[in-house]
Write a structure and sequence with these properties.
- The structure holds two protein chains of two kinds.
- In chain A, 41% of the residues lie in helices and 24% in strands.
- By secondary structure, chain A is of the alpha/beta class.
- Chain A has a domain of 183 residues: Rossmann fold (3-Layer(aba) Sandwich).
- In chain B, helix 3 crosses helix 4, helix 7 runs antiparallel to helix 8 and helix 8 packs antiparallel against helix 11.
- Chain B is globular and about 60 Å long.
- Classes of the chains: A alpha/beta, B mainly alpha.
Chain lengths: 262, 260
């Protein structure tokens, strides 16, 4: 059980947020002539390190823009870190892309294969799981209907069903439990719980601190791309919640002072 | 990225390429009115128009003018369609690359493949027309795959380069539109090379597309086997361009995330 599953080592991630980022050749040439080619660096992650053993689960908490999703995308291999290394062992199921990459004019059937291929699965592989995917998404009647006619709930169900149909060693979940209606959400939760049974490593992002405590043993608190606290999920979440309450109170007070002055 | 890792990645996403090609093929041929028929008619219609306009002008210098025209048109259209689509292929699918690990060049590969399939379909009317016009058939015609495979490799290289730079410079497609328009005239498709003054002809000789078109015409119309020098130059163009394309794409790829 002591096998390392995910190891994030001194990871830095930089984005270029330059306001006059050149996306046209014309502008590029003009700016080059003017000597104006500067770059506005934005560090989405700074010096982030942690390690997860096989079967461990970790929740990521932090306000919007704290770098949670960037970290997940780095671990999923969608982007590469500017500095530092990321090591993962085994197959990864990134539940980040739910409903992404669908082709509106194709039928549900064709989209299952296309989406599966985007996850790197062969046609054979998907064929074996096809019935299961469709029945879980409850779309049996609509298999050959172009998905442009689907409701957003149907699309989300299909996306979730495809992404979770595969057994993976590492599951990366970014706010996935906001799929469909209450009944389907229940079904999703059961499915995720099943996914997590046999020694799966989990990385989980949610704004719902309670669900992090419920689902994860560990938690990592990110703030402006830096690790504030890393440890037991309960402790981290309590500290984080306190911080948020404090921030809300301060904001409220500031507003009151403003109102009094006005 | 090491060689093995890149190859592994390519193999892993080969099914994806298959699905993409299948999808595009379906959209183009099943789900469109006329479908394959359009692909077959398109070169015929163009060749007819060109023949009506130019055949009296070049009657003496060009034998089987419609075939001469179609053969050039086939390769140029393939090149232009494939590269134009590839140019925008990476940034058009930014949404996919933000969420999936899919290698960005896969869309490029699929565009070139689809254009190539269209090229193969479009060569059927060329053969039919040759029979109708009573052009003698000969064994060198069997060498027909050679120029189009070379054109395929060359086009793939160009597409990769354009796709990589297309991410950084979104106005490249306008610029490239002008270039391809000029290419219509800079490649001898509807006129014989002899009308170009000798002192400028070296410019035409530099055009790799003309090289492939020339080889195609030699084996298909003129019953000749192209000489070694032509073949060597044509092969070098193709392989070097592909190698350059791979290098450029690999180099630029790590910077894509900032622009997608």
């Amino acid at each position: 059980m002591a096998e390392t599953s995910v190891k994030v080592d001194n990871v830095y991630m930089m984005f270029n947020l330059s306001k006059n980022k050149q996306t046209s050749l014309k502008e590029y040439v003009i700016d080059m002539v003017k000597g104006n080619l500067f770059f506005d660096e934005f560090w989405a992650l700074e010096n982030v390190s942690f390690e997860l053993k096989r079967g461990e689960s970790m929740g990521l908490v932090g306000v919007n823009g704290s770098g949670k999703s960037t970290l997940l995308r780095l671990i999923a291999g969608i982007m590469e870190p500017t500095y530092g290394t990321i090591y993962t062992k085994g197959t990864i199921a990134p539940l980040i892309a739910l409903g992404g990459g669908f082709e509106p004019t194709l039928s549900a059937r064709e989209n299952v294969y296309l989406n599966g291929a985007m996850h790197g699965h062969s046609t054979e592989f998907m064929r074996k799981r096809f019935d299961d995917i469709i029945s879980f998404a409850e779309l049996e009647e609509f298999v050959d209907v172009p998905i442009k006619n689907f409701s957003s709930g149907m699309l989300a169900r299909l996306g979730f069903s495809i992404a979770t149909s595969v057994h993976a060693d590492i599951v990366i979940a970014d706010e996935v439990l906001s799929v469909g209606d209450a009944r389907f959400r229940k079904k999703c939760e059961t499915r995720i719980a099943n996914l997590l049974k046999e020694g799966t490593t989990v990385l989980y992002v949610s704004h719902n601190v309670n669900s992090v405590v419920k689902m994860c043993k560990k938690a990592l608190w990110l703030e402006k791309g830096r690790v504030i606290q890393n440890g037991n999920a309960r402790d981290v979440c309590i500290a984080y919640k306190r911080y948020i309450e404090e921030q809300t109170r301060l904001a409220k007070e500031a507003q009151e002072i403003k109102n009094e002055k006005a | 990225m090491t060689k093995n890792k890149a190859l592994y990645e390519f193999m892993e996403y080969l099914p994806f390429l298959k699905e993409l090609v299948k999808r595009d093929f379906k959209m183009k041929y099943y789900k469109s009115f006329l479908g394959v028929l359009w692909t077959l008619l398109n070169p015929l219609i163009l060749a007819t128009i060109m023949t009506i306009i130019f055949s009296t002008l070049f009657k003496r210098s060009i034998e089987y003018y419609p075939i001469y025209n179609i053969s050039g048109h086939l390769i140029l259209t393939f090149f232009v369609t494939a590269t134009k689509q590839s140019l925008s292929s990476v940034y058009h699918h930014a949404g996919v690359f933000r969420k999936f690990k899919v290698p960005q060049y896969m869309y490029c590969l699929s565009n070139v493949t689809i254009a190539f399939i269209t090229l193969l379909f479009s060569s059927v009317p060329m053969l039919i027309l040759a029979l109708v016009l009573g052009m003698p058939l000969h064994f060198t015609m069997l060498l027909f795959p050679l120029p189009i495979i070379l054109a395929f490799i060359f086009t793939m290289g160009c597409s990769l380069i354009l796709a990589a730079y297309g991410v950084f410079f979104r106005d490249l497609s306008h610029l490239y539109g002008i270039l391809t328009y000029a290419l219509n005239f800079l490649t001898p498709i509807f006129y014989p090379i002899e009308i170009i003054p000798v002192e400028y002809r070296f410019v035409w000789d530099f055009n790799p597309l003309y090289l492939y078109i020339r080889i195609l015409r030699e084996v298909f119309i003129y019953n000749t086997i192209p000489n070694e020098k032509t073949l060597l130059v044509a092969t070098c163009y193709a392989i070097l361009t592909l190698a350059l394309g791979i290098l450029v794409f690999k180099e630029k790829r790590s910077k894509f995330y900032n622009y997608l």
